[in-house]
Amino acid sequence: MRFMIIRKADQATEAGVLPSGELLAAMIKYNEEMIQAGVMQAGEGLQPSSKGARIKFTGGKPTVTDGPFAETKELIAGFTMIQVKSKEEAIAWVKRWPALDADGGVELELRQVFEAEDFGDALTPELRETEERLRAASAKL
Prior knowledge:
- The structure is a single chain.
- By secondary structure, the chain is of the alpha+beta class.
- It has helices at about 10-15, 20-35, 85-95, 125-140, and strands at about 1-10, 40-45, 55-60, 60-65, 75-85, 110.
- The two termini are about 25 Å apart.
């Protein structure tokens, strides 16, 4: 089972405040523990929304709105992808998140990733083959 740990944005991350050396060291240690346990697949911090954009489609036509975006609690500051055996195992890893983050007030969200088998008959053998080929190609990039 794959899960995404979503680090919610806050005023500091939206202001572009970089983590302290102490927090960076704690995050690197946490990531190293997950890599050594064979559960971490990827993880990245995100720039503030002021450097991003939202693209909304209405009637199939895109409208682009440049950041920043006012509602901080709806934004994310980073993510980590993990592969574990259960939701409980994923929660156990999330509980180990460095307490230094956001001075102990960080908000994280855990979301399970859809797997091919979740789509049932809608994912035909032809679509599954194409999806697997695309995954393999993107892994090489």
